[in-house]
Amino acid sequence: MQTLYHSGRILTMVDPDDAPEAVLVEDGLITGVGSSADLRERADEPAEVDLAGRTLMPSFVDSHGHLLGHGRLAALVDLEDARSIDEVVAALRKRLAAREAGDVSPLVGAKYDPTQLAEGRHPTRDDLDRVSTEIPVLALHRSMHVGAANSVLVEAAGITAETPDPEGGRFGRRPDGTPDGFAEEHSALGALLTAIAPEGGKGGIFGGGDAADALRLATEDYLRHGITTAQEGAADPGTVTALADAARAGDLPLDLVVYPVAAWGAPAREQFAEFTGDYAGRLRLGGYKLILDGSPQARSAWMSEPYEPIPGDEHPGCAYPAHSDEQVLAWTRELAADGVQLIAHCNGDAAAQQWIDTVTQVGAENPALLAERPVMIHAQTVRDDQLETMARLGMIASIFSVHTFFWGDAHLRNFGPRRGRRVSPARSALDRGVRVTLHQDSPVTPPDMLLSIWAAVNRISREGTPVGPEERISTWEALRAVTTDAAYQYGEEETKGQIREGMRADLVILSADPLATDPQDLRDIEVLTTIKDGEVVHSA
Questions:
Q1: β-strand partners of 139
Q2: Domain named Amidohydrolase: which ranges (predicted)?
């Protein structure tokens, strides 16, 4: 079947001045770009879509996120709108009261944010004991890097005053050394999740829920926001199994690139060999993910200089690494030998340095590591000297641009004006020749690509504070970061991210032309239609 799109603005993402009249699509591919008359002459009575002045452009490519985790969180208690610990407790109590009689399963809430709570702190076991003293209760921070448990869960996890902090994490403690219910970073949170579900935490750090329902909810939301290529970053065996089952059943309506956690290692690709080449059922294994530190808004990102003092943390340090240099080097050597892409979560500049040093050393030993385009995920506080080295290595910076909106004010408090204003330094990266992509890290923030574009272009916090205006990028640069350059990150630049002949017909129709829209209004543009391989998969 042929479809001709015409009578609107067409952004090819090849050049900002491109202005073709029409695009012809056939059998999932773009077969013509040019004048309406020429394409009609070439086509055989195509179906016609009158854009009526709206904008057609390549669909969005998600350069980092957790698709299944985004869907799974929909089943948890939503704490995003809580503005006090009392409201956190109330939301959890409300869900508990709505349960059927006899349901004693763990109660999990997600997305609380202490920067939005009146108390300005995390909940403790004493707070969550107000929800229940009979069943386990867990509240997860919006970053998904920290959380708090009630006494039932703390005791079930076997955490006591004598329990040492795990490597790359810590437990909060009362003045007498007994645990206060707080757990920081995945190694510590893992103790709580294992106590909830000994077989592996029902989906790991992002909570439980039925995988099929979670996948449906997540893909609907991604497609609604114009994303047709998504990522499952840091996938555990249960997550990959669920996604592989969905791919085999033909239940993936978008392309999904999966990165198993580095600790799993080579067995991941051996177990799921059918997905190690091109997409199979719209699923492929892209490589491996390393997590090297924590979260800047939670003050657990590993920094080279101490955090600024704040109430409750008057003598801050630099936080800590998730893994030793020796462990990171060993994993990188082992996994690079497979000839696959490695991506690493680095929020703090000390973590960024650990990754840069590792890639420099292993890349010299095995150039295949560099050829596969290593990625620094988040790159929140990366310095200019580090960006210069990244450019030489060909390392991509996948930047969490919407952080400046959600947590810009927190970063200014946590880091002070000098460091806080340059969080998510996309301008500095581009100016030094680093290829930049943008992401939302869903479920940490919604998979709203137009909000990320708006954030990168404007850099204004949700409290209205300018956050390093000198790090703003242009609308064109932001659009490239979520289309052309994101496709490049995946090694798919010859099939996605632009409108030209031979490319896959992954497209969106927008309510307005982003290049002709006032930067302040970019987040108000609507995704009207999402097209995957020539088929409409979402229509507003």
A1: 109, 148
A2: 48-538
Q: Is the sign of the CA dihedral 490, 494, 496, 497 positive or negative?
A: positive
**What are the structure tokens assigned to 273, written together?**
């060999």
Is there a contact between 240 and 260 (Cβ–Cβ < 8 Å)?
Answer: yes
Mean pLDDT, rounded, for 328-355: 97
Range in 141-145, 267-271, 343-347 the model is least confident about = 141-145
What CA–CA distances, in Å, run from 523 to 28, 168, 390, 483, 512? 29, 37, 30, 17, 11
Per-residue confidence (pLDDT) for residue 377, from 0 to 100:
98
Specify the residue for token string 């609604």: 224
The pLDDT tens digits for 353-362 are 999 999 999 9
DSSP track, 393-412: HT-EEEE-TTHHHHSHHHHH
pLDDT digits (tens, 9 = 90+) for 2-20: 999 999 999 999 999 999 9
Q: Are 211 and 252 in contact (CB under 8 A)?
A: no
According to DSSP, the residues that pair with 77 across neighbouring strands are 109
Contact between 256 and 232 under an 8 Å Cβ cutoff? The reply is yes
For residue 83, the tally of other CB atoms under 10 A from its CB is 12
Mean pLDDT over 58-77 rounds to: 92
**pTM beyond cutoff 0.85:** yes
Mean pLDDT for the stretch of residues 181-199: 84
Residue 184 buriedness (CB in 10 A; 0-12 / 13-18 / 19+): buried
Residue 164: Cβ within 10 Å count? 7
Query: Judging by DSSP bridges, how do beta strands 375-378 and 341-346 pair with one another?
Result: parallel
Which residues are bridge partners to 344 per DSSP? Answer: 290, 376
Q: What is the pLDDT of residues 219-262, one digit of tens each?
A: 999 999 999 999 999 999 989 999 999 999 999 999 999 999 99
Give the three-class secondary structure for 321.
coil
Of 123, 71, 88, nearest to 239 (Cα)?
Answer: 71
User: Which amino acid is residue 171, in one-letter code?
Assistant: F
| pLDDT value of residue 168 | 87
Q: Extract the tokens encoding 232.
A: 């499952």
- Whole-number Cα distances in Å, 256 to 275, 278, 280, 317, 499: 11, 11, 10, 38, 21
Cα–Cα distances (Å) from 533 to 286, 400, 481, 518, in that order, read 20, 28, 21, 31
Between CA 436 and CA 452 the distance in angstroms is 13
Higher-confidence position of 78 and 489 = 489
Q: How far is CA 499 from CA 8, 86, 229, in A?
A: 14, 51, 16
DSSP states of 262-320 as a string?
TTT-THHHHHTGGGSSS-BTTEEE-EEEEE----TTTT-S--SSPPPPBTTBSS-----
Question: HEC profile for 115-145?
Answer: HHCCCCCCCCHHHHCCCCCCCCEEEEECCCC
